[in-house]
Write a structure and sequence with these properties.
2 copies of one chain form a homodimer. By secondary structure, chain A is α+β, with helices and mostly antiparallel strands. The first copy, chain A, has 2 domains: 3-271 and 415-452, 2-methylcitrate dehydratase PrpD (Orthogonal Bundle); 276-405, 2-methylcitrate dehydratase PrpD (60s Ribosomal Protein L30, Chain: A), CATH 3.30.1330.120. Helices cover 51% and strands 7% of the residues of chain A. The first copy, chain A, has helices at residues 3-13, 21-40, 45-57, 77-87, 105-119, 123-149, 154-157, 159-170, 175-187, 195-198, 202-222, 238-242, 279-292, 308-314, 320-324, 329-333, 336-346, 362-368, 377-382, 418-431, 437-448, and strands at 65-66, 74-75, 96-97, 267-268, 299-306, 371-375, 389-395, 400-405. A 4-stranded mixed β-sheet of chain A has the order 6-5-7-8. In chain A, helix 2 crosses helix 6 (123-149), helix 2 runs antiparallel to helix 21 (437-448) and helix 8 (159-170) runs antiparallel to helix 9. Chain A is globular, with a radius of gyration of 21 Å.
């Protein structure tokens, strides 16, 4: 049996009663964290455009799956996953699985929720599907590895396996059909980084389409479409075409199903509303400022010692001069200098702090110039197993402070509490101008008892 | 202006009155050739599965776009393009643009027809959109080049630009929106060769999805979604991620719009029902057998001197021993030995000759073993500008004959006549068990006067 086949067989055989209790609880936590993100991104033009596409092409109004921010738009599962997947990756607050560099929630939950609503699955089946989706997407992400990540938007290219796995579970595909779904998912895997250059909307297209493709893969597998058996390791498969370095083959099956190995236990919440690669440095700066009572004006310069991938991604808004000229809110979340400027000024970097007005704020633009990044060899060697940072702050009075951050807030070991998850969700609801906060908060209560829910309907809010 | 921008601007500005008469006539020829292919593939399980997906997810029955082989299934443009795009790539008789190694018809026509039916476009608008689609897909294919083709199914990865261009024309997108559509198309480009290993259904998934994605790209661009501006040549674009060698940048814009340069003039019909890489050798064998009055039993061995890509593709059914054991009709069309065996036995290799029974025919299996391939340096040097072959036949009596084929039947310079196109279509209709041949043949008459048609409806047949 190939490793891909072993993974497909495991996904197909997984049952709710197999799941350790912490895995069930963590799935609920990440689902609520995702739900807020999906509602929070509703006004983004990419979401509006894909919602229009779903209305043009799908059964607008007459489907069983909900577009979460638009109760009137009930559509088929593929289109609901498309729109919710686009929306949940807008505000940059969805989770990240560090060792794979995959954002699993934004692909797995939209697909699982849409299919669960379409087939009338209960909470237990939904939780099981989500666990399977996390497992598949994160393991494929680890398999594809850093050399793939340099070229491709991993969340999409690995994520499509997560959507396929979740949909396959809910459709009760057997092992052979699930393997077919993986084959079809893999041969459609796509997503280039070029959007970082001009701050365009492909990021949301990638998450939207990965959910759609995963559902396509599972539904067509059920209907008899044969996907190739060894799409990952085969001689003309993903690794051969899309992994310039060596794939991590063992990652596909190592400790599969071991209680402490479930991927969903190892995902990270995003506490700051910026690119995940800024979080270690943001925590470090905040710690130094708190420990030494510094204000933004006390700081002359900041050096962030990071792994190379951070510079690869965060440096991609253009050349040095252009980097100073941020033109969109999205770009500003991917600019280390700007993110640390927000941290220095507000003591946080929440979704309410990145605005068009902020792009013009002279305090922030001035602080931005004081920040630079350097690769640290030790930190680089530990990446992506650890997303560490060391921050050196030199004050206007000439003193230098240093703070090493091994684990950023939100990471495994520093996961958010349910109270913090709810607080973060309420903050997002405020940002998204949710008018019916009671309906929104009712979802909190449903999610905390999700394994007892008989269906997943009625989650849309306005 | 980047080259991608120049191409988008040209696509957006193209008008029917700009088109040279031969371009209009050739578009009609290739459209009819494609139409027969789309009807001919209707029973393939991948088509059945994707049709089921379209019914599950789309407005089954209430759309404006036709699934050509199923008059009752009128759906939205994206799903009609999906199913027709899958169907038209099943019987391996759709056209090929040699210098790009793209099969443009199977992506461009499904997308253009589906959108034309959805927006109520007339024949002239449809023809213009198809010309734009051929131009975009073939030029992008030439841009991506042979090193990309080794890793990716070019018809899909370049084809998505053709679907996007055709849809953009019919939606009357401006140059900026068309560029956005290209950006969205490119960041979704996908398609691995792994399906050749186990004869699975990804080939049809690729053509189906490329049409779907192109429509997605154009409709969402109209709705405000921003695609990245330089998706082909940008530092994190397609060339950077998916072209291991050097892309052919000039191909994107060289002689754009020059009367003799239109891509559709340079596409090739497929006369034999097998992989295009077998055609030169098939013609050569046929010529030798006709010239010297040979029968299959007179032939002891056949050596086909070809370009390397032919061996790369045709050798991919497995290792040497397994190659003898063809298990599917699809595999048999990609096996040089088997294809030449069919030619030797029947004097042709039509869609009626590749069957499950043929796979068990001892005559064919015996002849198959007498065929081998070798790379010819001169032929390799001319590829992909020329798809040449030289065939050496040694008879049982020890005489050796050689035939060089510079231009295969169906290629530019040896294009099919309208009579031959109709004959080929009738043969496909027989294969597909079309019951209402009068409706089928009425389409011939509509296509030959396509520029005078006020709409594209009513082309489905049973």
């Amino acid at each position: 049996m190939s490793r891909t086949q072993q993974l497909a067989t495991w996904v197909s055989a997984l049952r709710y009663n197999d799941l350790p209790r912490p895995v069930v609880e963590k799935t609920k936590d990440f689902f609520l964290d995702w739900y807020a993100c999906a509602v929070g991104g509703r006004r983004h033009p990419a979401v509006v455009a894909m919602s229009a596409f779903a209305r043009d092409m799908g059964p607008a109004g007459s489907g069983k799956s909900e577009v979460l921010h638009d109760p009137a738009h009930k559509t088929s599962s593929a289109f609901a996953a498309l729109v919710n997947g686009a929306a949940s990756h807008v505000i940059e607050l969805d989770d990240l699985h560090n060792s794979s560099v995959v954002h699993p929630a934004t692909i797995v939950f939209p697909a699982a929720l849409a299919v669960a609503q379409e087939v009338g699955a209960d909470g237990k089946a939904f939780i099981t599907a989500c666990v399977a989706g996390y497992e598949a997407s994160c393991r494929v992400g680890e398999f594809l590895g850093p050399s793939h990540y340099k070229k491709f938007h991993m969340t999409a290219t690995a994520g499509v396996f997560g959507a396929a796995a979740a949909a396959a579970q809910l459709l009760r595909l057997d092992d052979r059909q699930t393997l077919s779904a993986f084959g079809t998912a893999g041969t459609q895997a796509a997503g280039l980084w070029q959007f970082l250059i001009d701050a365009t909307h492909a990021k949301q297209v990638h998450t939207a389409k990965a959910g759609f493709e995963g559902i396509f893969a599972a539904y067509t597998a059920r209907a008899g479409l044969l996907g190739t058996a060894d799409v990952l390791e085969g001689v003309s498969g993903m690794a051969a075409a899309m992994v310039p370095g060596a794939p991590n083959a063992e990652a596909l099956t190592r400790n599969l199903g071991a209680p402490a190995s479930y991927a969903i236990l190892h995902s990270s919440y995003k506490w700051h509303a910026s690119c995940r690669h800024t979080h270690g440095s943001a925590d470090g700066l905040l710690q130094i400022m708190q420990d030494h009572g510094l204000k933004a004006d006390d700081i002359k310069s900041v050096v962030c010692y990071v792994y190379r991938a951070a510079i690869d991604v965060l440096g991609r808004t253009g050349d040095d001069e252009k980097e100073e000229n941020l033109t969109t809110v999205h770009q500003s979340k991917f600019n280390m200098g700007f993110v640390l400027a927000v941290i220095a000024k507000y003591g946080r970097a929440s979704v309410l702090d990145f605005t068009d007005e902020a792009l013009q704020d002279p305090d922030l633009l001035d602080f931005q110039k004081r920040v630079r990044m350097e690769v640290d060899d030790k930190i680089e060697a530990d990446f992506p197993a650890k997303w560490q940072a060391r921050v050196e702050v030199t004050t206007t009075s000439g003193v230098t402070f240093s703070q090493f951050v091994e684990v950023a807030k939100g990471d495994p070991g520093r996961h958010l509490t349910r109270q913090e998850i709810e607080d973060k969700a309420r903050c997002i609801a405020e940002y998204a101008c949710i008018t019916d906060l009671r309906a929104f908060e009712e979802t909190f209560r449903r999610v905390w008892r999700l394994e007892n829910e008989t269906d997943l309907g009625g989650l849309a809010c306005v």
